[in-house]
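for the writeup, i need someone to sanity check this before i put it in the appendix. the sequnce is what the collaborator sent (i think, or maybe the updated version? ugh). structure was predicted straight from it, no edits. if anything looks off just tell me and ill rerun, i have time this weekend
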Amino acid sequence: AGSLMTTRHSQTQSMLEKSLTLTSTSTNTPYSKAAEPTEMPSYVTKCPSNGLCSRLPADCMTCNTNFSCIYGKPATFDCKVKPYVHCVDQNNSEQENFTINMTCQFCWQLPTTDYVCTNSTNCMTVSCPRQRYNATCTVRDHIHCLGNRVFPKMLYCNWTGGYKWSTALALSITLGGFGADRFYLGQWREGLGKLFSFGGLGIWTLIDVLLIGVGYVGPADGSLYI
């Protein structure tokens, strides 16, 4: 019994020594701090260095917008430059906090000249009723507005395939009897019909001159004239 007690005591002491060794090792291990990111944010490329703060693009600043302003009226908002952006005031002194003046309106209410939208080449511009497509619009950099700067909008089909109205009309007047106007617009079946019927004995030719002149007949791909 005495030897058994001695064996258990030695095992307990051995486990206690190992625990103390592990605690000492973990305590003396130096703490390694996570490396801070050194990459510049993507918006920095849009921000001119040492320019006027009030003329910075909207992506270069953060503003406390007030949605209770009166629509269509001038409004003033407090803004602050984003990290890594450097700008100055009228006295060429560096500043971080400044104010901007803008018209109280949401981005989707801006005039069409203040934003850029994606184009669609799948819809027909010559159709009744006129077709629309879902576009994604982005506000231009120097324009300030309320709400999201990227928004969806329903737009009329307005893309062009490079066909000129003047060229189509000139071909219809001069070589319309041979179907040159229809061939130019990509309408091969109508072109062949005019070619083998000598312009419908001249009647089809005169009708096409009128239809192309008023813009009723357009390119076969459904695009607009240039």
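The longest strand covers residues 74-81. Residues 115-156 form one domain.
thx in advance!!
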